[in-house]
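Hi R.,

Here's the chain you asked about this morning:
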Amino acid sequence: MIVHHNLDHFKAKNPVITIGTFDGVHLGHRKVIDQLNEIAKRVGGESVLFTFYPHPRLVVSKDESNLRLLTTLEEKTLQMERAGIDHMLVYPFDESFAALSYQEFIGTILIQKMGMHTLVVGHDHRLGRNREGTYDKIVALSKQLNFKVQKIDALLIDEVDISSSKIRKALQDGEIVKVNNYLGYRFSIRGKVAVGNQIGRKIGFPTANVEASDPYKLIPAEGVYAIITEFDGKFYPSMLNIGYRPTIDTNADRRTVETHLFNFNEDIYQKEVTLHFYQRVRNEKKFSSLDELKAQLKKDEVKVREILRTADLSQ
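And here is the predicted structure, written out as tokens:
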């Protein structure tokens, strides 16, 4: 897959293009991508995903504070490559782009600059300023500008019955198994290890405090999770705790993300790690003493080790 961040050197054979944020690149999105690739193959062309950065809501809604993403741009790129897309265009979304009418967007960018052969759209997809470009208007424009329009079968998507909003809700409820089933891969958080409160070290459970690489990355519900920590190309069974600390200002919703790697004693401060989620073990609890906390963590460790005992550590 070729990734483009502008159109300066974009070149593709009979581009078959679909447009959207595709947050999560879940199984519903995969149905769309499979159809995109199939159409591209049928017309002797190449599949193109036209997506945006930053997220349009951050530009259109200046006071946006509720945006939470399932996938960072880096994660979305990886999943698109796995899905078999030929080209991924990450177009800079700004106020001037948001002001384009659907006629200008299609005519100037998709036709003149990209040489689009076919536009693949959903039955309810809208393009351009104020979302004025309905499917019927796009079809009418296609006859003027000589490009083809392919509508994605609504039943194809409804059959999967998956949406990014459903997955976000499941994450906020800590339903990791359901989330992973919807995604078709394991939910993960990538970030850098920062200084924590060092409490875990005092009771024999040292943790790495992880700051997500994107401040809009959705952090799952508070509680203890069975995860795999990926560091430097290796995979380590781990126990993760997500909590809440009012003073934190890095992760979304002021959540703390702390992973305890089993049988591991390296210094990974300021190093990048990826946390792959398997299952939630319990809700977050309040403890009256460190001894009580330590006793509970020992019980948690037994459960986590059992969950991960048969897990594929290489993902």
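One quick note: The radius of gyration is 22 Å.

Cheers,
M.
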